Amino acid sequence: MEKLESYDMELDTTTQTARLLIDIWAEPSKQNPHADVLVAPEFLTKFRSLLTSAEISTLKVLEGDIQSQINAERRAMIHNAIRRRKRALKTWSDFDANVYHSYEEMTEFMRLLSEQKPDMVEMIKVATSSEGRSIYGVKIHPPGPSTPEKPSIIVDAGVHAREWIAPAVALFMIKKIVHEYGINPQVTANLQKFDWYIMPQVNPDGYEYSRTNDRLWRKTRSKNVTVNRWCVGADANRNWGYRWGTVTQKNLERKKVFLGEAGANRTPCSNIYMGSHPYSEPEIRGLKEYFTWQITNPMVYISLHSYGQLLLSPWGYTNERTENYQDQQNAAKEAAQAIKNTTGVSYSYGTISEMMYPASGTSIDFMQHRGVPYIYGVELRPTDNPNSFAFNLPPMFIKATGDEMMAALNAIGTHAVKMKRL
Ligand SMILES: [Zn+2]
């Protein structure tokens, strides 16, 4: 994988554009010891010879034409957008959580919700993106004034632009919590114990770019004016300051030949570029400030990604275990069981570095360092099996994925209450 990452970009010096030659979609993990890799047609011969020289003999073509999946998704989106435009959103409960929305539509939903449910929902502004979009979230609490120092559950989504199911699930959960409070006993109990902070779209520039220009865009859209002018953006989940760049540094110390390394990358063109310095991305800087100063008693932190059906806990930057490793794994086990009971789907769990690969500069390492007891980077549906749609998961799966994630969070909340005796 590390070797492959080093080939991930080709620079066309005449047009000054960069084209991905190879894009790693899913890294090998413990239960799925294979990688999903998107290969540009002109790189296929080289790719095959690289595999041969690495003595990798099993190669399976999962999907010969990714563009046709993207085109089909686009047609459905345009159709839906036309249908929705006929009827402007009047109440928050009319919001259709079962489609992929634009940044504007997400914002409008949160605004309406906070206006129409002011006793429960407060709209919060967390940051401003490189291109000037406001990054919003909601704080949800039981009706009435919110209690200071109440423990909280924090959910963010959309860190990686192309992982569309993540913001969709976050929005689904917002609607479900408000809608089912007082009706669903589990939802009600959890909201009484915890305040919820949900930020459904923390990389709006990247997300909009993935909707309009490049469906497989992953990074932010910041301009690298000094380092490299034709490669845009950084990996927002390699940009956090705690142990930023450690993995790369370690590899450099071991005098690895290749510039690109798994975990984080110093080349601005890479899909896992960690940024020019810690918190170089205004989105991440804003999140860090908000998490540090505005949320007084964080108990659970979840960052939603796709795909692979995994609950990943810290550390990312090292193979060492955290001091509360066992408790985090116990909660993850209960969450995986709750998912299974809800939709029958299997999620695996473990630390990032033991399940997959080391990664430094992630939000979950930051949160662990901050002392948050329960932390999971969640890789939502699908699994990395053939014909599973990868990032182009059809919107018909939003509800089930949202329901199972809600069940997982309820289980983690219940576990936290049990262990911490809240
Ligand atoms: Zn991701």
TrEMBL record:
Its main location: secreted. One of its GO terms (molecular function) is metallocarboxypeptidase activity. SMART domains: Zn_pept. Keywords: Carboxypeptidase, Disulfide bond, Hydrolase, Metal-binding, Metalloprotease, Protease, Secreted, Signal, Zinc. Its cofactor is Zn(2+). Pfam families: Peptidase_M14, Propep_M14. It is found in: Secreted. One of its GO terms (biological process) is proteolysis. Signal peptide: none annotated. This is Peptidase M14 domain-containing protein. It comes from Caenorhabditis nigoni.
